[in-house]
């Protein structure tokens, strides 16, 4: 599996119990949405291996999951720190006007005057709304991802148009 086909969805925090279950930190909107995928790709440093998802539980502060072939605590603990990825092609299509964060990262951001503000380096969740972190060299701009600011997103052109000034 190529890295550019995979989207990191979380990582293994360690073993959970003695029967091969792993404790998971999910970087998804809904933690248990990882359970929707039959095969998880786990790896470090671009060395990926597929694991079949067998079972999972939502815990108070994490997820726990049983993966095929991981049958004891030692095998589960050996996975600590592995990233969990899912092929982008397996994601459901987003609703109209909705976007996966992974699709927004790297897009060029321009203001209404056509001035380049930078590239989306990451997104943050603030509770009130998501925020685009737009990076232009040493300059970082935080743009709320709301209709009043983000006027258009063109994934095909790799461009976001925002109502935002250079001096904001």
From TrEMBL:
Pfam families the record matches: PRC_RimM, RimM
Keyword terms: Chaperone, Cytoplasm, Ribosome biogenesis, rRNA processing
Domain RimM N-terminal residues, every copy: 9-89
Gene Ontology biological process terms in this record: ribosomal small subunit biogenesis; rRNA processing
Main location: cytoplasm
Domain Ribosome maturation factor RimM PRC barrel: 101-164
SUPFAM superfamilies: PRC-barrel domain, Translation proteins
Subcellular location: Cytoplasm
Molecular-function annotations in GO: ribosome binding
GO CC, any one term: ribosome
Binding partners and assembly: Binds ribosomal protein uS19.
Family the entry assigns: Belongs to the RimM family.
Domain remark text: The PRC barrel domain binds ribosomal protein uS19.
Role: An accessory protein needed during the final step in the assembly of 30S ribosomal subunit, possibly for assembly of the head region. Essential for efficient processing of 16S rRNA. May be needed both before and after RbfA during the maturation of 16S rRNA. It has affinity for free ribosomal 30S subunits but not for 70S ribosomes.
Name of the protein in question: Ribosome maturation factor RimM
